[in-house]
Specification:
Length: 539
């Protein structure tokens, strides 16, 4: 009874304290930024940008412009003050966030600490000089030269996957429904593991069960079930030792939390076993055989002591690259296959382009045998204009990662390309961003920006990447609205291709982000997606 009185008194005191704070707290520096009203005392309206998907995100921008105020989940900071965040899709603002002032706008503590607990000290769990060192070390792994070498590694995997799926189609021509998602996921896992680690989990063998495969596939849904716990993770990690954090997990009656811990333990054990195996092979055989594909270990062993990554950092890269390399590409590949199944004209045009490329390559090389069995090299595959347009357009309209967050480590002023209307009714072209403000980078909204892509921005139309003659459109080479069918000159998002002069291609989409934290494996992802799309359309 006494305990109930104490609890009741504590709750009453908390409510009174919150009411006092609400009426005595100074006006928020973001009070002049418009946005939807808070819908829930705990969830604010943050949950809507995930829960309600495409339509809600695009309506936010349509109603409020390229900078919108969002009320976040109730976190540690929100116990003192309602936490307001900025939802950004304006191209100039995003350029400042991810390129020009990337030292000011860094990943959130929740993102960094959470990823470090799951993956270890990998690229997505480090900041500053440590992150720059890791990226410098890993850049050669995803170089153009390495992509040329890796295509022959992943082509047999794609062939095996096609054979498995074709076997599920009845020989009598009857209709059967085949769930592609788990199989494409297994194939993507094999691609990244064999290409980056020189290791196979036999993911395409249905007779073999593998705990790691199941763990990595269930990681994303496991973390999503704990979304309300994430804001508290940095505080818990900083204030409690590993011993007490494990005790708290044992005591908490949460199956989702226990499942996530199991998933992380499985991933950690598997990566340590693979790493130990590769180090032994490297010491005994040198840079030959299968270890030649284990590029991270190989590159690290040959670097100077100053640049060399620790074993802990290398282990972090393994799980990071495996997860990033299969989760997003699985989503994109399945989306392309779904689109091609719906659009028979697109499928026929793509099939014609692929067959022509195979015939021409076989003839140029003087190859004998059926041209259908010819494997075209990397440069030929990635130069197919219609295939390239399909991949780019799918990644634009349906980005596998739609939202990312940054924290302003110091106060800053964020300029806007398109002015927005403030709460007082005036048009403003810049926003004062207080220190510790969280900003949501909307890849989805930026990829659907009608100012950039035209009125049909939300329509899937690969022709916008092609010239009238069907050639690849080199954005940034003076070709504008009339040729691209909607891509406008003078406005760019800080996409990865804008930073690659050798490709001579500007970029307007944010799918792979930009700046120092752009997706390091985007070339591999596009090669993987193109390879699968190419093979399936040959039938």
């Amino acid at each position: 009874m006494a305990l109930l009185r104490v609890c009741g008194s504590s709750i009453f005191a908390f409510i009174i304290w919150r009411l006092i704070k609400r009426y005595r707290t100074p006006k928020s520096p973001l009070a002049h930024i418009l946005g939807p009203k808070k819908e829930h005392w705990l969830k604010g309206n943050f949950h809507r940008i995930f829960q309600d998907g495409l339509r809600y995100n695009l309506d936010l921008v349509k109603q409020y412009g390229g900078a919108v105020k969002i009320y976040a989940l109730l976190g540690v900071k929100a116990l003192i003050l309602d936490q307001e965040q900025l939802y950004i899709s304006d191209p100039l603002a995003l350029h400042h966030i991810v390129v020009k002032e990337q030292n000011v706008y860094e990943e959130t503590d929740m993102f960094i600490v959470g990823n470090r607990l799951i993956f270890g000290e990998g690229l997505i769990a480090t900041l500053g000089e440590q992150h720059r060192k890791q990226r410098k070390m890993l850049n050669p792994v995803f170089s153009l030269a390495n992509m040329r070498d890796l295509l022959p590694v992943i082509q047999p995997i794609a062939d095996q996957l096609r054979t498995i799926l074709m076997a599920k189609i009845p020989a009598d021509g009857s209709v059967v429904e085949v769930n592609l998602l788990p199989w494409v996921s297994r194939g993507a896992l094999e691609y990244i593991c064999q290409a980056a680690l020189g290791h196979s989990f036999d993911a395409l063998d249905p007779t073999k069960e593998n705990e790691y495969i199941e763990a990595i596939r269930t990681l994303a849904p496991s973390t999503l079930r704990l979304i309300f716990l994430r804001p508290f993770i940095p505080m818990i990690v900083r204030r409690f030792s590993l011993y007490w954090r494990n005790k708290m997990m044992d005591w908490m009656p949460s199956d989702a939390l226990k499942n996530l811990r199991h998933v992380v333990n499985v991933m950690d054990t598997a990566s340590k076993n693979i790493f130990a195996e590769k180090k032994v092979t490297l010491e005994n055989e040198g840079f030959v055989g299968n270890v030649g594909k284990c590029m991270k270990v190989r590159a690290n062993a040959s670097s100077s002591n100053d640049d060399r990554l620790t074993d802990s950092e290398l282990l972090g890269q393994m799980n990071t690259i495996i997860f990033a390399g299969f989760e997003t590409t699985t989503s994109a590949t399945c989306r392309i296959l779904w689109i091609l199944a719906e659009k028979q004209d697109v499928q026929a045009r793509l099939r014609s382009e692929i067959r022509k490329a195979k015939r021409e390559y076989a003839a140029a090389q003087g190859l004998s045998g059926p041209w259908e069995d010819v494997e075209v090299p990397y440069d030929t595959l990635m130069a197919l204009p219609y295939l390239d347009a399909i991949v780019r357009e799918t990644l634009r309209v349906y980005p596998p990662t739609s939202l990312l967050s940054r924290t302003a480590r110091q106060a800053s002023v964020l300029p806007l390309h398109q002015p927005i209307r403030s709460a007082s009714g005036e048009m403003i072209s810049s926003i004062y961003v207080p220190e510790n403000t969280t900003l949501i980078i909307s890849i989805l909204a930026s990829n659907h920006n009608k100012e950039i892509w035209g009125e049909d921005a939300s329509e899937w139309r690969p022709e916008r990447w092609l010239s009238p003659s069907g050639e690849r459109l080199h954005l940034g080479d003076g070709e504008g609205d009339s040729m691209s069918g909607g891509i406008k000159d003078g406005m760019k998002y800080p996409g990865v291709y804008g930073l690659i002069r050798a490709e001579s291609r500007g970029e307007r989409r944010m799918t792979f982000l930009g700046g120092g934290r752009a997706c390091i494996g985007f070339k591999f992802a596009e090669m993987e997606i193109s390879t699968l799309s190419c093979l399936f359309r040959m039938q």
